[in-house]
UniProtKB/TrEMBL annotation:
Keyword terms of this UniProt record: Oxidoreductase
Entry superkingdom: Bacteria
PROSITE patterns, A to Z: FAD_PCMH
GO molecular function: D-arabinono-1,4-lactone oxidase activity; FAD binding; L-gulono-1,4-lactone dehydrogenase activity
Ranges where the FAD-binding PCMH-type domain occurs: 12-176
Name of the protein: FAD-binding protein
InterPro entries: ALO_C (IPR007173), FAD-bd_PCMH (IPR016166), FAD-bd_PCMH-like_sf (IPR036318), FAD-bd_PCMH_sub1 (IPR016167), FAD-bd_PCMH_sub2 (IPR016169), FAD_lactone_oxidase-like (IPR010031), Oxid_FAD_bind_N (IPR006094), Vanillyl_alc_oxidase_C-sub2 (IPR016171)
UniProt keyword Membrane present: no
GO cellular component labels: membrane
Length: 413
């Protein structure tokens, strides 16, 4: 038992009284049964108090991951606290792969799933969409298993930790594959606004890195299962590896230049073993209907002069819709607009309402694990299944064992 400390980006100091690290699921079950208030703490990549607790926190990093691949079902069952960057080589060595990875392989499976975190690609859904079963510890210490097709399943995957402590996750897998990464520089904003679909569909996974007050999008990263560079008429091909943020040493970034490599070494933007992104940062992200992308970009460009002084980089990427109740991609094909901002909390707090105001006409949903200022009323309009989730949580956790201040302000209200 230790004190929880701070999150990865040092934007939040945990207020929980203690952090427990059980060595097994039975020990975890006893901890949950005995604690009036308890929540799970993953790899600390939430930028605010989402993972905090008014009671105690529990980390699953000491519980063996015990990866089990079922080749017939094409699934892998893993310990919920395992990081994607640790899981991926195990799967690859067994001849299997995930269909998507997040930008950061450093995040835990359960944390990414619970917040609706995503990779990139017109046809590549969120990481949560790969889940086919969950095992979790309920408020009385009982083990509960939910499977795809169960009535509560679609509400329980993106759960924000409000339904229990997830212990194991079963994911869809596919045969291992290679990916090649290509980068184009200085793509005119006029081109992006004129035919964003052509850019987002140029490869299996596409990310745009940009600022808002310039005439060009700085970089377009294209990740493809095909070894040949996509034939595109825009931008200039990069001549060396680059970091998503201009001016930072690309040693932290995954290999580019079309050099093929295993899926897990190309789909993320950053390598395991290095500090991802810049570290000293605040992140915000808003997800909106893909068919409104160009309008949203244009709206943000009108306030670019106020965004850019606090901005390190914006990443734009896409994903298809899903049926998970609290997923930011619920019910619609989605474009995500992600802001990596300087770590100046007061200035960022003043900026975000202006960003949210510019995006309000496009029903932009915030990423649950990143900074936003929208409250329960606004989120209730953006997430049509939020009332169903509240009822589900009331049934599975009637005493609010897994609730905290963040959930009370945004979900339960």
């Amino acid at each position: 038992m230790t004190t929880p400390g701070r999150n990865w980006a040092e934007t939040h100091t945990y207020e929980a009284a203690a952090l427990h690290r059980p060595a097994g699921v039975d020990e975890l079950r006893r901890l949950v049964a005995a604690a009036p208030r308890i929540r799970a703490l993953g790899t600390r990549h939430a930028f605010h108090d989402l993972a905090d607790s008014p009671g105690v926190l529990v980390s699953l990093d000491a519980i063996p991951a015990d990866v089990v691949v079922d080749p017939d079902a094409r699934t892998a069952t893993v310990g919920a606290g395992m990081r994607y960057g640790d899981l991926a080589p195990v799967l690859h060595d067994a001849g299997w792969a995930l269909g998507a990875m997040a930008s950061l392989p450093h995040i835990s499976v359960a944390g990414a799933v619970a917040t609706g975190t995503h990779g990139s690609g017109d046809r590549i859904p969120t990481l949560s969409d790969a889940v086919v079963a969950l095992e979790l510890v309920g408020p009385d210490g009982d083990l509960v298993t939910l499977r795809e097709g169960d009535p509560d399943f679609a509400g329980a995957v993106v759960s924000l930790g409000a339904l229990g402590i997830v212990t194991r996750v079963t994911l869809r897998v596919e045969p291992a594959y290679d990916v090649h990464q290509f980068v184009r520089n200085a793509v005119p904003w006029e081109t992006v606004l004129g035919d964003f679909d052509a850019i987002s569909s140029a490869a299996d996974s596409v990310s745009l890195f940009t600022r808002w007050g310039t005439d060009v999008v700085d970089q377009v990263w294209m990740k493809s299962r095909r070894p040949t560079e996509p034939s595109v008429p825009w931008g200039a091909a990069a001549t060396a590896d680059q970091h998503p943020i201009l001016g930072i040493d690309p040693v932290h970034a995954t290999v580019q230049g079309g050099v093929g490599g295993p899926w897990f070494e190309r789909l993320p933007h950053f390598r395991m073993g290095f500090t991802p992104s810049v570290g000293a940062e605040i992140q915000a992200e808003y997800l909106l209907p893909r068919d409104r992308a160009a309008e949203a970009f244009a709206a943000l460009r009108t306030i670019g002069a106020r965004i850019d002084p606090l901005l390190q980089v914006t990443e734009i990427r896409t994903m298809p819709g899903d049926d998970l109740w609290l997923s930011p991609s619920y019910g619609r094909d989605t474009v995500a607009i992600h802001f990596t901002l300087v770590r100046e909390p007061d200035a960022v707090r003043r900026l975000l309402p202006e960003v949210e105001g510019a995006l309000a006409p496009y029903a932009a949903r915030p990423h649950w694990g990143k900074w936003f200022t929208l409250g329960r009323g606004a989120l209730g309009e953006l997430y049509p299944r939020l009332p169903d989730f509240v009822r589900l949580a009331g049934r599975l956790d009637p005493e609010g064992c897994f609730r905290n201040a963040f959930l009370e302000g945004t979900v339960f209200g």
